[in-house]
Amino acid sequence: MKNSIKTLFAAALTTIILGTASVSAMATEKNNNYTNLTSVKNISKIKISGNVKLILVQDAKESVEVYDNYFAKNALVQQQNGELRISSFTATPLLVIAHVNNLSAIEASNTSTIKTAGNFNLLNLSIVLNDAAVANRQHPPPSSALARRRRPA
Asked: Which residues, 6+ apart, have CB-to-CB distance to 106 below 8 Å?
């Protein structure tokens, strides 16, 4: 079951990562502590590294919200070819909320944390956690989806 959950989160994060342009070029609303990137589209993969806290929200309207002045720090939020890449190597975690629609893969490393908010239902999600990366579900999936993903011990 742990592998299934990891796979589910990995796929979700992977979709967020994939895209066509860098996030800095897509910023539509920003201040010193918040940037809302609404031009991200078709995120199928998310790759995060470093000290990042990622919250995934399943939403038909994709966007990425970054809560910090990450431009001035050692951090990166970039979308290219459907892959959303997020990295931060500061002492405090970079908080990112990604609204995604059809995520298929997530890869996380270092001390990254991945969580979901609300209902999150995907057909196939691959999750790869390296180093001390962690993925947690906020809300359990419907019982039928959980039953399909369970493997005998």
From this structure: 9, 10, 11, 12, 13, 14, 15, 16, 17, 45, 46, 47, 48, 114, 125, 126, 127, 128, 135
